[in-house]
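User: Please predict structures.

Assistant: First:
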Amino acid sequence: MKIIFILACVAFTALTGCVPSKKASDAKENKLFNQWLKQPRSLLVKQWGQPDSLMSDGRNGQILIYKEGVDFLSVMNEKYTGKQYSPRIEMYVNADSIIYHWKAWRRR
């Protein structure tokens, strides 16, 4: 019985060690989006396409909102594989069309 317990502990440790930590995921996300700071809006739109929606930033600039939808078709076809997330990324652009801030969410 002890050998099964030890094997289970080793397997659990190996599996959880392979999952990226929230800190590592956040660092990767920060690196990715921080590259856009001080870049022109036109470059973002050229690479990402038109945003899903726009809002005012309250300072004569805009907030470009990009969303990635949930794959509801797989859910409806009963191929649901777990929690579905809908990321939302907001890129803040000043009056000179330069990106100065960003926010990202992973919503359930």
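Second:
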Amino acid sequence: MSLTYLSNSTILSYLEKMGIKMDLFYKTLWKHVFIIELLKLYSGSDQGKMDNLIDWFVQKFTAKDQSKKKVLDYLHKWKGSFWLNIEYKIKEMESTVSEKLAEKLGIKSQQLLPFLAELEDSHEKSTSQTIKTEVINKSQIVVNELQIQEINEMIKRMKSDLFDKRKARFFILVDDLDKEWVDNKIVYDLIKTMIDAIKELKVIEGTKIVIALRENLLRLVINKSKSRGFQQEKYESLYLKLKWSEPELRELVEKRISLIFKGKYAQRHIKVEDVFRISNDKSQSALDYILQRTLLRPRDVIDFVNKCIEEGDGKSLINGEMIKAAELRYSKSRVKAVEDEWVENYPHIVDFVNILSGCNESFDLTKFRTRTEEYLSVNKCELLYDTTSTPLGRMVNDYNDGKNMDSLVKYILTVLYEVGVIGIKVSGEESVKYSYLHYEAIEANQLTDKSNFYIHKAFHKALHTNTNSRNNS
């Protein structure tokens, strides 16, 4: 689906500029979209069946019950758009907002945009400010009241009279939210309100709406919403974190190898060990070696295996030399992937990763502090000019003023941990934790001089990590 129209809507753009909170409008939009999609699934994409469904509602409910009347009005109003695309539905909802707002302001619909444009350009006089305040208040009321009652009643009726998990189950999957489907200025609000809408639609049994969301994108949504009182713990029950086990990844590689090398090993089942050998005496498993250098994700494993096969150049046996040659290219691709994936969350992620270049495999806080100071003194990176009022900007200000740099150093370490580049042993009594295995946040204030840090093997080659000594700087 494309929501470009939503970004380009003149009326909605004016409302945003006036400071109108659009969360309820977006959430109502999502509810509306999902209700229509569920009704289409229920009716089997048969317009005649949908018409019969509405007739069934009419016969079942009497007009005396106001809540049921709202459902019937809703169905009749949107009946013609059930089979049209989402962009058309957005246009209809935008039109509803325009009509209701014009009505509240006592003007004709066609006069609304010129009125708002003139109001925006008006000088900051007390009279115009009074008018602006009145328009803002009335606009917020219109946005807040938009079909909320009708939609909530519709959800109740779908729950009680239509959907039943014992009869059939219906799924909607929303994917590719990390692509350019809407303008960045509203994308996080749209994803957050989509999650809110789905949370409320959970009451309809026999239906499930699933969002496939990358970790970094979820973090962005959460961080952008914190200022508006977003309580993350209330959403934790909605999450299902995807995790692949080593046996599942082994099976994936074996199927891939079996397909690629089909015909080179007669008709027998091909195992990874038949093709990949890290050492001649088979004392070390090549697949173990590969998996240890991934974040246990299919994309990592497939990337490494593909690069090994490329190094093999058609040979039926890929030896340790080829695997290690492929590892350098693979490691560089993993560093690039981390930077590309997380740059929107952390604009200075490239510098954070580069600080580790030439480091030991393991190090403590003192050694990382020294290395960070050396890196920042030699490289005139953009990080040093980030003096905004953000927490990071204040840390950079402290550093530039010659104050204690511990806050900045610990912040960088927690970021590197979050993106999977390093593991952290908070204290001597604890084990080493990696974010992709433990899903556990580590805060900067948990890090002390007793903490130890470990560069993940996936990044050793690209970062020229010293693996000979674990204790020297």
